[in-house]
Each structure stands twice: as C-alpha cells, then as structure tokens.
Write a structure and sequence with these properties.
Elements: H1 5-29, H2 35-51, E1 66-69, H3 75-84, H4 125-139, E2 145-150, H5 157-168, E3 174-180, E4 183-184, E5 187-188, H6 189-192, H7 198-204, E6 208-213, H8 217-229, E7 235-240, H9 263-272
Parallel strand pairs: 1-2, 2-3, 3-7, 6-7
Antiparallel strand pairs: 4-5
The structure holds thiamine diphosphate.
Thiamine diphosphate binds next to helix 2 and strand 4.
C-alpha cells in the first residue's frame, strides 16, 4: 500500500532531522563525512522507520532484521537513525568520533546499539550481509537483511563476488540500497572509475534491480515493498541521490565527501535545514 500523505510528510521530517543531526555531529567532531549521509537521509528514513524490523525491544532477538552500512564512512546518518529508533541514546550523538565513544568515524560492531557490522573498508559490507541472509535462510528465519553501498564502493571487486553468490543462493531476503550520487572521495565517479549502469549490472548478476529517485520517499517505499515481495532473487535499489542534499553549498560537491563545516558553514547549513 502506498504511503499516506501524513506518513510521507512524517518520513520527510525524519529525513530533515537526520540531516540536522549529521551537520551537528560532524561540526562538533570537526571531522567526518557530511556529504554522503545528507544524500542518503531520505532512503535511510524510509528504511529505518518504515521497513527495518529492528527496535530496542528485539535488539537481541537473533531472528530480527539486520543492517550493514557498506559505505561505512556515512555512519553519522546511521547513528542518527538509531537515535530516532530510540536505540542509541540521543545524548550519545554528541560523542561522535570522540576517544572512547562507541560512535566512531566508521561503524564498530556493537550488539547493544544495533550496529550489526564493523565497516569502513569498502567492499566488505555486502559480503557480510549476504552471509547473514544465507544463515537466516538456512535457519528458516523471517530475518531480512539490508545493506547500503555506493557508486564508489561498486568499484570494489568484492561487491561483485557477493552479488554472484547472493543470486546463486537465491537470497530474496537480501536488499542492497546503493547511494548513487556520481561522487566519490577523489571527485566525479565517472571520471575516476566509471561503474556505469548499476541496475543493468545487478540484473546481469541475477538480481531484481530498479532505479529509484533517492529523494522521493514514496518511490523508495514502493521499491522496498517490491523487494519484500520478491521470492527468488536478492534486490538492488539503485538510489539516485545528490551528495550534500538539503544544504545548497554542499550539493553536488565532492569536497564535502569528507570535510567538516566550520562554525559559519554549520550555522548556514542548519538555517537551510530549518533550525
Ligand atoms: C578498501 C577501501 N579503499 C579505499 C577507501 C578510502 N575511501 C573512503 S570513502 C571512499 C570513496 C567512496 O565512494 P562513495 O561511497 O561513492 O563516496 P561518497 O558518495 O560518500 O562521497 C574511498 C575510496 C576505503 N575506505 N576502503
């Protein structure tokens, strides 16, 4: 069933709040990656609020859903989503990237905080996610496994090994959401190392794959529903996004892949986000 107009607005509001958290966290840490999680905020909001069966109550249930942030550098958005689910205490967000904090600059697996996998070394996330999906299937569990990835991460050969085996084992309980913003650490993906048409590639590897407007919460929700209805194949949502989305001076700029805003830039960004 399509999102109601009220639910659509509520999810867009969560996405806005994730963006606010990302700016505040990266600014307070004076380092980190704001661009990616700003671009991913819409699909992270839909996934975490509407689809992922992960809550404070079922955190230690082995049969619950799993989430792996393949593009681990975008973790400020994950920590914000976990705070919106009431799993990560909101005040803990202020410790982002500080010495001793469980919320490091790349995710560190933590069973009590809903961080299901350590990531940051690009290429590994989808492999571990497909292992989790295979285990769930072997056990006959209802668990669904979701991973994120990115255009830059799709340059890693290991992604395609995972894609091969996930299709081979018919892991219809596995879905990857690819943040396709055409930007990576060194600039425009198409100039650095063109991964070309990822929908066609995942399809060729035996997946159910669709292109999605990564800022349209209704379209993202519909694509996640279609992925759930799949019974034979793993699903790939190629989410077309803009890096830095929501902050005009960050949009489309590779410089914001891994640069913290200074005081003035943070003030300007937060004002644009309605704070
Ligand atoms: C195996 C590995 N090689 C290199 C890096 C360094 N690295 C960090 S992020 C990144 C670019 C990733 O591209 P993408 O996720 O598309 O970037 P974004 O859209 O977030 O700017 C690279 C090469 C890494 N983390 N892991």
């Amino acid at each position: 069933m399509a999102l109601t107009p009220e639910r659509k607005l509520a999810l867009e509001e969560i996405a806005r709040r994730i963006r606010v958290d990302v700016i505040e966290m990266v600014h307070a840490a004076a380092c980190g990656h704001p661009g990616g999680p700003l671009g991913m905020a819409d699909f992270m909001a839909v996934l975490w609020m509407e689809h992922l069966n992960i809550s404070k109550e079922n955190l230690h249930d082995p049969q619950r859903d799993r989430f792996v942030l393949g593009n681990g550098h975008t973790c400020a958005g994950l920590y914000s989503a976990l705070a919106h689910k009431g799993i990560v205490p909101r005040e803990m967000l202020h410790t982002f990237r500080k010495l001793g904090s469980p919320l490091q600059g790349h995710p560190h697996r933590n069973a009590d905080l809903g961080i299901d996998m350590s990531t940051g070394s690009l290429g590994t996330g989808l492999s571990t996610a497909q292992g989790m999906a295979l285990a769930a299937k072997a056990n006959g569990w209802p668990t669904r496994v979701y991973a994120t990835s990115s255009d830059g991460e799709s340059e890693e050969g290991q992604i395609w090994e995972a894609a091969t085996s996930a299709a081979h084992f018919g892991l219809s309980n596995l879905t990857v959401l690819v943040d396709f913003n055409n930007i990576q650490i060194d600039g425009e993906m198409r100039k650095v190392m063109n991964v070309r048409d990822l929908r066609q590639k995942y399809e060729a590897f035996g997946w159910h794959a669709v292109d999605v407007d990564g800022h349209d919460v209704t379209a993202i929700d519909a694509a996640l529903c279609a992925a759930k209805a799949e019974t034979e194949r793993p699903s790939a949502l190629i989410c077309h996004t803009t890096i830095g989305k929501g902050v005009s001076f960050m949009e489309g700029k590779a410089a914001w892949h891994g640069t913290a805003p200074n005081d003035e830039q943070a003030r300007e960004a937060l004002a644009e986000l309605g704070v």
